[in-house]
Amino acid sequence: MAYTTINKSTDYFNTVLYTGDGASTHQITGVGFQPDWNWHKIRNDTDWHMVNDAVRGANYAIYPNATNAQGNVPTGLKSFDSDGFTVGSLNDSNQNNGTFVSWNWKANGAGSANTDGSISSTVSVNTTSGFSIVKYVGTGSGSNSTVGHGLGVTPSIIIVKSLDSVTDWVVWNKDLPSQTNNYLRLNTNQAIGTTTNYWNSSAPTNQVFGVSPDGYNNNKSGEDTIAYCFAEKQGYSKFGSYVGNGNADGTFVYTGFKPAFVMIKNTSATGVWRMWDNKRDVDNPNTANFQANASNAEYNDPAVAIDFLSNGFKPRSTDSSYNGSGATYIYMAFAEAPLVGSNNVPCTAR
Hints:
- By secondary structure, the protein is mostly beta strands.
- Helix content is 2%, strand content 38%.
- The chain folds into three domains: 9-105; 112-230, no CATH class; 237-338, no CATH class.
- The chain is built from two helices and 28 strands.
- The mean pLDDT is 94.
C-alpha cells in the first residue's frame, strides 16, 4: 500500500469553485492556504484559461491555451490571500453570474535566488509537495545551459513558457521517449515534437534541468521565462504514463491515492489535454472536463468520462484523446486523499 507523510492533500493543492459577480473586487476563499500558483477558467462560457503565480506577481497572467506573451492584467487576479485570492472585473476571471473553477498550488511565496544552474533563477519551492516555480532569463546559447529548480529531487514534469514573446508552452515529461529531444506543447493538441538537444545534453537532475543551447522556446535570448516543476510525492502526486485499451472499461491507472485532479495527453498522436477534478463532478463517472489547450466552455459528456477510484483512475470510453487502443498517454494527478497515510487512515472510493 502507498504511504505518505502528506495526510491532508488540500494543504498543498485544492480546487475551489466560485461564481463571478462582475465587481471590481471579488474575494474568493476556501482554498485553505495562500496559493502561489493559480489556474482558473470560466466554466459556462468560452474564455481563455488564465495562470498567475507569486513569483511573477499576482497581476501578471499567461494563458495555457494561447501563445501570447505575459500580460499585466490588474482586473484579472488581483492578489493572493491567506485563504484564497481576489479577482477583479475581467470576464475571464469574474464575469457576472459566470461559474468558475480555480486550481491552486502552494509553493513558497515570491521565491529566492538560485545559482545551481549556469543560468541564475528565482525559485519558489515547496519540497514537501514537490512543486517549484522557477523564473529565469534566457541566454539563447551556451554549451551547458541549465537552470536550478530547487526541488532537491529530480522533477517528473516541467512546463515552460517564455513571458516576453509569442511562443508555445513546452512540456518535458519523464516518460517521453527521449529525455533530451522530445517535448509537448500545452497550448496545442499536437503529438510529440522532436528537436535535437531541446533540453540540453541530459535529463534533469536533483538540482537542475537543461534548456536549449540554441535559443528555442525554453531559452530565448534575453527573455523572461517561467517554469513550473513537479516531482512525484508518494500518496500525493503522480506523473506517469499508460497504454489505452480502446474499451469503455478503460485501462486502470494506479496512483496510490484517490485523485482530486487529473490531466491527460495522448503522446502517440494528436489529442487534446483533458482535465478533470473532484469538485465540478462529485460522482462517477466524472463527465465534467476541460481542454487545457482550448478556450471552450466546460464539457459534460459521457463520451469523455473518467472514474476517480480510491487508488487511481479509469477512463470510461474509447475516445482516442485518453483511451485509444494501443496509444500511449501521459498524465499528471494530484490527490484528494492517500490510499493510506502516515495516520493509517485508508481512503474510500467515490
